[in-house]
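WARN no homologs supplied; continuing
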Amino acid sequence: MTGDDWLTDIRDSYDTVAVSYADQLREALTGAPYLRAALSLFAELVRTAGGGPVADVGCGPGHVTAHLGELGLDAFGVDLSPAMIEVARRDHPGLRFEVGSMTDLRLAGGSVAGLLAFWSLVHLPDEVVPAVFGEFRRVLRPGGPLLIGFHVGTGARLKTQGYGGHPMRVHVHRRRPEQVAAWLRDAGFTVEAHLLTDPDADVPGALLFARRSEVDSSKR
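OK structure emitted
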């Protein structure tokens, strides 16, 4: 891939599977008590930090955004796929959703009180992640909490089909928590907690809680 071809592949792939993806994930949190607990903790951290708007970046069909709303947060969703945003607006008409890329968020600096990226970084090439974390830091208020979920492991595989058997073309990356934490620290975050989920599964999950540092990392 060259340039931003990977972004085009992600957008086109999720435009194709949007309806099937939403159908499969609609009740995903019901059987995931540890994920629900992590989201509840995230909501508490946002409130403790003063509250305000919360961005669910890579929100997909909006089921997690809606759950954050049920927890009392002023949550809105951003996703690269216009079809995903259309589904999110259909399923959750009382919430705000907009098309956008996490590589260049159309949000003012320091405008969000919290930011969530729930398994939405898994298709990004390694070399792009540090810049995306820089964008996250830019839009977060000082002291604002960040929650990131991702697949644990090493390497990447090309996914060519999924969610109802529709064609896709996305690379799925697995990453070590210590590497993700290092990228966060370099971007100006303080890493506060790490939760490993399904540790005996073929592909475990990880959740990292971090907070935008009060001091600009470039000045330390």
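The chain has one domain: 5-219.
OK
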